[in-house]
Recover the amino acids of this structure.
């Protein structure tokens, strides 16, 4: 039992870590580690019946209905991953972005194969949804980020959008926050425990989880192969966002002066994808890290099969 709980905590930790990286989805980790459908069904079970059990102090039935032990252990792992690694990953992304993104590029690339192979029957609709999923995920990368907005309602909306993308494989909650303009705001709030930001963000996350999990559970149960295919496409399309070699486009005013956020940082207007210099030492290290990320997924799958 302890071993199972430790493994589950580790899966949550990996999900929390992944959600901090722009372009990487905790949902992808959940899908790869075989807990995705259970997670969605557990979240969906928080309904009126569950509330009735809680009000009537029928705690044992409540715990069983909502799979509370599973959610508690997994959620603790996610929280620990976010809280302990947010500052570390913030520094690594600032100073070694190419290397960090290379690891995750290899990880996500190999994930496409392992997630896709769970499709049982290949049909025209399965192929179509794979193409649509790939296009949608890749298209998000070309959206221009909004400016930072700390209003209560907007942060609630950010929470809803971020949590929906976090539990949807291939769509990164962190990158969605970048598009919405509040990534640095949220990351800073986590590091400083700013309740003025975290409370409305958490409210949005709860609303998004309750509503979106029901939709995902429905389509999973009715259209399993089509759903997996679309999610595989999302994962493949997210590689555009994770591509390690890209330059940031900053926003300027009509006079050519840089536009800054409230922290004095240049506002991001998008990205320009470039090819690496193959002979450079940085590229060689990045490619090795990319292979390492791919092999890590192979190792995880081998362990899961044993």
């Amino acid at each position: 039992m302890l071993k199972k709980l430790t493994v589950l905590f580790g899966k949550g930790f990996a999900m929390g870590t992944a959600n901090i990286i722009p372009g990487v989805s905790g949902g992808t980790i959940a899908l790869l580690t075989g807990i995705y459908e259970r997670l969605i069904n557990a979240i969906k079970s928080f309904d009126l019946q569950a509330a009735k059990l809680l009000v009537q102090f029928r705690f044992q039935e409540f715990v069983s209905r909502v799979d509370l032990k599973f959610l508690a252990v997994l959620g603790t792992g996610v929280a620990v991953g976010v809280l302990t690694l947010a500052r570390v990953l913030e520094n690594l992304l600032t100073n070694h972005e190419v290397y960090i993104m290379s690891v995750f590029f290899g990880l996500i690339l190999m994930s496409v194969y392992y997630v896709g192979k769970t499709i049982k029957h290949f049909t025209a609709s399965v192929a179509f949804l794979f193409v649509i999923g790939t296009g949608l995920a890749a298209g998000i990368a070309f959206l221009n980020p909004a400016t930072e907005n700390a209003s209560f309602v907007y942060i609630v909306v950010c929470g809803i959008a971020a949590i929906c993308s976090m539990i949807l494989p291939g769509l990164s909650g962190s990158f969605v926050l970048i598009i919405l303009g509040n990534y640095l705001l949220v990351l800073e709030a986590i590091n400083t425990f700013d309740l003025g930001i975290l409370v409305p963000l958490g409210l949005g996350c709860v609303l998004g989880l309750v509503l979106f999990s029901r939709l995902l559970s429905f389509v999973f149960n009715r259209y399993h192969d089509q759903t997996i295919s679309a999610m595989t496409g999302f994962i493949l399309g997210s590689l555009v966002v994770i591509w390690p070699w890209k330059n940031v486009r900053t926003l300027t005013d009509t006079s050519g002066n840089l536009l800054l956020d409230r922290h004095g940082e240049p506002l991001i207007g998008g990205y320009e994808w470039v090819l690496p210099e193959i002979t450079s030492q940085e590229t060689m290290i990045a490619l090795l890290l990319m292979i390492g990320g791919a092999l890590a997924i192979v190792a995880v799958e081998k362990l899961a099969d044993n």
Remarks:
- Residues 2-305 form one domain.
- Residues 68-95 form the longest helix (28 residues).
- The chain has a mean pLDDT of 82.
